[in-house]
Amino acid sequence: MALERDLQTDPPCHPRALTGITDCLTRNGFDEAKCTRYVDALYECCQAFYKKNSDEATTVSCPKASLLRLKMEQREKAKQ
């Protein structure tokens, strides 16, 4: 997945949200633990989206910037 390409889609980061996470969850009985790489990829895209456009920017594919940061922090702590 090319980050720049996914940032250019309309809406931004949508391919990672739709084809990545949704397809993985469907294939794996909605077990998020089996789809962590897709969630991480979406969050990477969303983080780049907010860095490029500001925390006030919006896209249906991403949580609000403050929630995204919280989720990324929680995921990082869970890895430790």
Average predicted confidence as pLDDT: 92
Overall, the morphology is: globular
Structural class: mainly alpha
Q: Would you count the extended β strands for me? A: 0
Terminal CA distance reads 26 Å
| Strand portion | under 5%
Helix content: 55-70%
Main location: mitochondrion
InterPro entries: CMC4, Cys_alpha_HP_mot_SF
Family: Belongs to the CMC4 family.
Protein name: Cx9C motif-containing protein 4, mitochondrial
What does this structure look like?
The protein is mostly helical and about 80 residues long. About 65% of the residues lie in helices and about 0% in strands. The protein contains four helices and no strands. The protein has helices at about 5-10, 15-25, 35-55, 65-80. The longest helix has 18 residues, at about 35-55. The chain is globular and about 35 Å long. The model has no long low-confidence stretch (mean pLDDT about 90).
